Amino acid sequence: MFESLSERLGGVFERLRGRGALTEADVRTAMREVRIALLEADVALPVARDFVEKVTEKAIGHEVLRSVTPGQQVVKIVHDALVDMLGPDTAELSIDVTPPAVIMLVGLQGSGKTTTTAKLSRLLKSQGKKVMMASLDVNRPAAQEQLAVLGTQTEVQTLPIVAGQQPVEIARRALNAARLQGYDVLMLDTAGRLHVDQALMDEMKAVADIARPNEILLVVDSLTGQDAVNVATSFSEQVPLTGVILTRMDGDARGGAALSMRAVTGKPIKFAGMGEKLDALEPFHPKRVAGRILG
Ligand code: GDP
Questions:
Q1: Which of 169, 172, 258, 280 yields a CA-CA distance of 20 to 30 A from 6?
Q2: pLDDT at residue number 261
Q3: Where do the annotations place GTP binding (predicted)?
């Protein structure tokens, strides 16, 4: 994960640490390199620029340059700024409500939404929650069956399929079933599209009006870099997203989506998909991720 960014930054830091004393010019040169590394990682331009400005301002302070280990101090400033950029803390789910808590997953087709619905259900089940999943995807053939299969694999209940129902009707039926049968959490997997379009947004809004979700999580593919951030911006303009799940982080050598998401959209990344297997979903820990990037 994020190997190429990590390698680039590693080189910059090695040069910084290698010097006894640092001048302002040294710091500025290093920060130019950091900026290039961030842009190569597909971090959004304004985010990379802000980051470098903030770090430079702190790093050329007298206390830093005159300290015994200026290189180390600059590296620490970069580390703290990275954590800040990724989000200050692990963002918890707000599901401590009168049951059933409703979690709605939205996103484009192929982003990993259905798989993530099953992964998150499995995770919540392992934490002792009684979870039901329902697929509202009536567009993609066999989408509802795909979730049912994942339900069998994860031993999570899925709402029985009734042919011909529309998303809002399915949401209503799922909510009733979850209430009557005493479920703690209802997971709603919504239909995706190839692109953000109005029909998709209208459908999501109609479902959200009925289901009143406690969480609306956007699933985006981390490999798509800044596109993932653009998708998140479009969605958050239309529906009140409570967070983002970044999938395929296991294959992301660059990290641009993870690094820009919070700053551009204001939405926290709550989970990271780390593989195809159903146990490959982790809470997103900004500190841990910053640590991995900085090696
Ligand atoms: P949907 O169209 O958004 O519902 O996407 P799917 O859930 O069907 O996922 C599409 C493909 O992405 C499947 O082959 C998944 O196994 C794969 N996938 C989903 N999440 C991850 C992840 O975190 N890492 C990897 N490597 N593959 C993933």
A1: 280
A2: 94
A3: 107-114, 189-193, 247-250
pLDDT score, position 212: 96
Average pLDDT over residues 28-40: 94
Please tell me the pTM assigned to this model: 0.94
183 phi and psi, to 5 degrees?
-80, 145
Consult the annotation and say whether 159 binds a ligand.
no
Residue 88 confidence (pLDDT) above 80 = no
Q: Is 192 in the pocket of ligand 1 (CB under 6 A)?
A: yes
Banded model confidence at residue 151, pLDDT cuts 50, 70, 90 = very high
Mutation to probe ligand 1, out of 145, 153, 222, 247 (largest number of atoms < 8 A from CB):
247
108 has binding-site annotation: yes
